[in-house]
Write a structure and sequence with these properties.
By secondary structure, the protein is of the alpha/beta class. 36% of the residues lie in helices and 16% in strands. The strands form 4 sheets. Strands 3-2-1-4-5-6-11 form a 7-stranded parallel β-sheet, sandwiched between helices. Strands 7-10 form a two-stranded parallel ribbon. Helix 1 (19-30) links the parallel strand 1 (10-14) and strand 2. The longest helix has 22 residues, at 92-113. The structure holds nicotinamide-adenine-dinucleotide and uridine-5'-diphosphate (UDP) (2 copies). Nicotinamide-adenine-dinucleotide binds next to helix 1, helix 3 and strand 5.
């Protein structure tokens, strides 16, 4: 229920100590809101929110969203979930529980508070897509019993829950299907391709290209993504999504490796390793809906976004993280 005495909102960000969550927290604080960051620190780190210690409008609560949560807020961004294949496959049962039980608890909270709730869904709901680029009306091509299923099916079930709470109980929901996003504060041991390649390049270690390297992904810089999430949350109630948020620029993993080698000036050799099971062959968002309904499109090209990302990892590897953690944006703010 909106508060009557204050124009600033109290906003819950689950997964707020993670890569995307911590950038979202920074942006919401900059907008003048109060932020409650809830995270169990599975893959997130205190380093990402260390610069907010003592901030008058920021609170951190260590909590696992698979358990009920009783707090008072005006809006909820539900981002809590391990997002990198190595981490979500490490404990697949917990991954599904986080998406499904976590969604139920956060939806139950939103229902009690009669507040708006946004779900960080994923392009993985499209699986290994037979439609290219992916539009929101494509139902996907997902293996229900493979190594990626805990993440893909968990996120699909969370979407189902969001829409059922909306249809059955009239809850105001927003569902963002996020495509691969990169930038400062990715965890160096996260296993995702951009962080892996940059860290390997900076150490002059072999770049680990999986398969023939011809599989594609489309990479969105974190600042653009955060702008899209906030625009979605602030969009008219009738617009629920699901809506794709990502950068349509599509690259093969070999092209990405070469871009990173050029950016870092590294002498690393590229070595090929087996392609993980069910690794999607191609991925590119169709963002027509986000453009039309949110007036949103990414502004930062991959080549441009790799610079601050590489700078971040350079500083991190040099052991000077605290300074870097506080730097939330390298590009002029959008809102
Ligand atoms: P991340 O791993 O950096 O952040 C996830 C955060 O959630 C971490 O801080 C982790 O500790 C926390 N968390 C995990 N399980 C939890 C639980 N049970 N209870 C409380 N906290 C928990 O990953 P990210 O890239 O920042 O992803 C954030 C969200 O965006 C995730 O839901 C992810 O599925 C989604 N997403 C991200 C991408 C991407 O490319 N980064 C793409 C698609 C979707
Ligand atoms: N829930 C929560 N915080 C709240 C309200 C509910 O964590 O403030 C949890 C609650 O534990 C329940 C879940 O959300 O398991 C779903 O709540 P809902 O009211 O939809 O279902 P019910 O309680 O009827 O099972
Ligand atoms: N990948 C790679 N080398 C790595 C890590 C990943 O070639 O060290 C590939 C991976 O096989 C996939 C792509 O890069 O085709 C993106 O992988 P990531 O784990 O970042 O994201 P997702 O597969 O979930 O899109």
């Amino acid at each position: 229920m909106p508060r009557l005495y204050d124009s600033c909102k109290r906003i819950l960000v689950t997964g707020g100590a993670g890569f995307l969550g911590s950038h979202l927290v920074d942006r919401l604080l900059k907008q003048g809101h109060e932020v409650l960051c809830v995270d169990n620190l599975f893959t997130g780190t205190k380093r990402n929110i260390e610069h907010l210690h003592g901030h008058a409008r920021f609170e951190f609560m260590r909590h696992d969203v698979t358990f009920p949560l009783f707090v008072e807020v005006d809006e909820i961004y539900n981002l809590a979930c391990r997002a990198s294949p190595i981490h979500y496959q490490h404990d697949p049962v917990q991954t599904t529980k986080t998406s499904v039980h976590g969604a139920i608890n956060m939806l139950g909270l939103a229902k009690r508070l009669k507040c708006r709730i946004l779900q960080a869904s994923t392009s993985e709901v499209y699986g290994d897509p037979a439609v290219h680029p992916q539009t929101e009306d494509y139902w996907g091509h997902v293996n229900p019993i493979g190594p990626r299923s805990c993440y893909d099916e968990g996120k699909r079930c969370a979407e189902t829950l969001f829409f059922d709470y909306h249809h059955q109980l009239g809850l105001e929901i927003k569902v963002a299907r996020i495509f691969n996003t990169y930038g400062p504060r990715m965890h160096p041991a996260d296993g995702r391709v951009v962080s892996n390649f940059i860290v390997q390049a900076l150490k002059n270690a072999p770049i680990t290209l999986y398969g023939d390297g011809e599989q594609t992904r489309s990479f969105c810089y974190v600042d653009d993504l955060i702008d899209g999430l906030i625009r979605l949350m602030d969009s008219p109630a009738a617009f629920t999504g699901p809506v794709n948020l990502g950068n349509p620029g599509e690259f093969t993993m070999r092209e990405l490796a070469e871009l990173i080698l050029a950016e870092t000036g590294s002498a690393s050799p590229i070595v090929t390793l087996p392609l993980p099971q069910d690794d999607p062959r191609q991925r590119q968002p169709d963002i027509s809906l986000a453009k039309a309904r949110l007036g949103w499109a990414p502004r930062i090209a991959l080549r441009e976004g790799l610079k601050p990302t590489a700078d971040y990892f350079r500083t991190l590897l040099a052991g000077n993280v605290a300074a870097e953690g506080g730097r939330s944006s390298y590009f002029p703010a959008q809102n």
